[in-house]
Design a protein that fits this description.
The complex is a heterodimer of chains A (301) and B (330). With 301 residues, chain A is mainly α. Chain A contains 13 helices and no strands. The chains are: A mainly alpha (301), B mainly alpha (330). At the A-B interface, helix 1, helix 3, helix 4, helix 5 and helix 6 of A face helix 1, helix 7, helix 8, helix 9 and helix 10 of B.
């Protein structure tokens, strides 16, 4: 190593380490600490009589008494994730296309309003659901009843209604965020390309299919990764809905992890909580890597 | 204007109306007494007149009143029987009924808001402002420092550092939360402190690393080389060349971090004692448990939303500039 290389390395480290030390201490190290617990019977962090149990924690998810709860939480999480992903397009994508075509001075106003719900906290969103769709006190239910359509039509205490309304309201919250991602992608398309297609007589749908979409792949990947991570990790909203007490239908995977892992042995063990966290973590890891690898190959080819 | 554009305009206007509707309902429900919650209210309902056969004890607990303050304001001396009704109170202590009503009116009208306010809303708002303000400022600086090294991947190990930051995206927060708590509280002695929250916010994320690395890599090489030939050290280069160019990426970073850090629920719940909660934990304390005081819950939600909506509307240009820069890409 020459003297110049040495000085360069020292400068690199001086700028990198302040944040990287924090990152290692607060993300990588905790992850490394948590990972081996999955092979033990550790109840909580003050439990010192720990012994190895092999793969029992993972297997216990598929055996009584836990299997029913695990499958139910998994089912709710997967259905929610799929519907929530559909909402990325139903809200964000369509709104981005609309704003892109609008070319009006109202764009700023629309953008500001559509983005606004993104400021609501997760717990706030859960409480908004309670406010709108609770049986007996929800404003929407009361309004439907006043219109003579029947009482308590949408009861968020029921699983089917919850799985329908929850993606709608999370989609509404994220509409502006997703719209911004897509709009950024659309605005990066050279105007000449769009003009050329227009002159060639391409219809609007053909333009979306052959000009917009291929250019928007990076935006699509970003929106997909954000949506996947947020859907699987959905937690605050469920706390607002009473997922920790009272509403068993709001027990998604994240709530189950919390209940098992932090109950100090009453409901389950820390090790079981971490085992479920890994079941969540692995598919996400694979999906994210597959997506980024695919995008890189596409960019290179 | 063509028919297609009119259609788009109408659809967008309709969607914006629907978007504002829940905010409106919230603003109404924050003032609907809990006893009225089973009836439909599209406007703030008038308060029912105060019944004078209400017992004093019930009055104090329903409206969260301080007994001593109540006696002082109405000039009541001697023993006040909590079992007595308001009627008996006015007779025994010669208080004009109008005076009693005038004194109690604000407490009944603003019951939800006052309950939340007395519950410590202001201190939790200030705590949130402190934590988020420090986090975004420091996090931006650290992110720029990280990006200034990683941009362009001059060394092979730079790629590894970058990829390890990306790992952050897929580590479930719930899984590492307890070890994080142990490290911060037991080993660094930062239990029940806002410093712990700030450290968690500025520790570097996949997003901040991606944003700043990509932005700095896009700066023309000549600029950097010119600065180095000038003999500018790294620090001078960072301060005089990089920082002035970081406006847009910082706007992207700040506009994405603001709602996330402001609305973080689980870390304050785990790290802080209830008296020091930031806003989302404060709201969870009001409404996430078994409490069914809807008026207080929705008042709390409304009050906690107002500051961030205000910040958002003030910085609305920044949000739009960030979004339209298209800088958030994989």
């Amino acid at each position: 190593m020459t003297r110049r290389d040495g000085r360069e390395l020292a400068a690199d480290l001086a700028f990198l380490l302040p944040q990287y030390i924090l990152y290692v201490t607060l993300t990588l190290l905790p992850f490394a600490v948590a990972l081996p617990i999955i092979f033990t019977d550790q109840v909580d962090f003050s439990d010192h009589a720990v012994s190895g149990v092999g793969l029992d924690n993972i297997l216990s998810l598929f055996r009584p008494p836990l299997d029913g709860r695990f499958y139910a939480a998994l089912r709710r999480t997967v259905i929610f994730t799929l519907l929530n992903y559909a909402m990325v397009y139903a809200f964000g994508f369509l709104l981005a296309l609309a704003l892109f075509e609008l070319k009006s001075r109202l764009l700023g106003l629309f953008f500001t309003i559509i983005y606004m719900p993104w400021m609501i906290s997760g717990i706030g969103l859960g409480l908004l659901l309670v406010m709108l769709f609770s049986p007996d006190t929800g404003t929407v239910n009361l309004a439907l009843e006043a219109l003579g359509l029947g009482s308590n039509l949408i009861n968020i205490k029921q699983e089917a209604a919850l799985l329908l309304v929850l993606p709608l309201i999370t989609g509404w919250k994220a509409a502006g965020f997703n719209m911004a991602i897509f709009l950024g992608g659309l605005l990066a398309i050279p105007t000449e390309t769009i003009e050329a297609a227009r002159i060639d007589g391409a219809s609007y749908l053909q333009r979306v299919r052959h000009i917009y979409l291929p250019q928007m792949v990076p935006a699509l990947v970003t929106a997909t990764v954000f949506c996947l991570v947020a859907s699987f990790g959905l937690f605050d909203e469920l706390v607002g809905l009473g997922g920790l007490y009272g509403n068993p239908n709001a027990e998604f995977l994240s709530v189950l992890i919390y209940k098992l892992g932090f109950s100090g042995g009453r409901d389950g063990t820390l090790a079981q909580g971490i085992a479920i966290a890994l079941v969540v973590f692995l598919p996400l890891l694979l999906a994210a890597f597959a997506l980024t690898a695919w995008q890189k190959r596409r960019g290179a080819g | 204007m063509t028919r297609a554009r009119l259609g788009i305009l109408a659809a967008l206007a309709l969607y914006c109306g629907l978007t504002l509707a829940p905010f409106y309902v919230l603003a109404v429900r924050a003032f609907v007494p809990t006893a009225e919650a089973t009836r439909l209210h599209l406007w703030i309902p008038p308060r029912p007149a105060l019944e004078l056969d209400l017992r004093i004890g019930d009055l104090l607990s329903t409206y969260n009143l301080d007994g001593r303050e109540f006696r002082r304001a109405l000039g009541i001396r001697g023993y006040m029987n909590p079992q007595a009704t308001l009627q008996e109170l006015t007779e025994r202590h010669a208080i004009p009924e109008a005076m009693l009503r005038a004194y109690l009116e604000p407490f009944t009208r603003w019951n939800g808001i006052l309950t939340v306010w007395k519950g410590g809303f202001l201190s939790s708002l200030l705590a949130t402002l402190l934590v988020v303000g420090l986090s975004i400022g420091l996090g931006g600086l650290l992110g720029i420092a990280t990006g200034s090294v990683l941009a362009g991947f001059r060394q092979r190990w730079h790629v590894w550092v970058y990829n390890s930051y990306l790992l952050n995206m897929i580590i479930p927060p719930l899984m590492i939360m307890l070890p994080q708590y142990l490290i911060l509280a037991r080993f660094l002695g930062l239990g029940d402190s806002y410093t712990a929250l700030v450290l968690l916010n500025i520790k570097g994320t996949a997003l901040s690393t991606m944003i700043f690395t990509a932005a700095i890599a896009a700066i023309p090489k000549e600029l950097r080389e010119a600065a180095i030939i000038d003999g500018a050290g790294r620090l001078a280069y960072l301060r005089h060349v990089l920082l002035p160019l970081m406006g847009t990426p910082f706007a992207v970073y700040a506009s994405i971090s603001l709602p996330w850090q402001w609305n973080d629920l689980i870390h304050p719940l785990l790290f802080l004692s209830p008296g020091r909660y930031t806003l989302p934990a404060f709201i969870a304390n009001l409404g996430g448990g078994q409490s069914t005081n809807f008026e207080a819950i929705f008042s709390g939600l409304l009050l906690s939303l107002l500051p961030i909506l205000l910040i958002y509307l003030l910085l609305q240009r920044l949000f739009m500039r960030a979004a339209l820069a298209g800088a958030v890409k994989g």
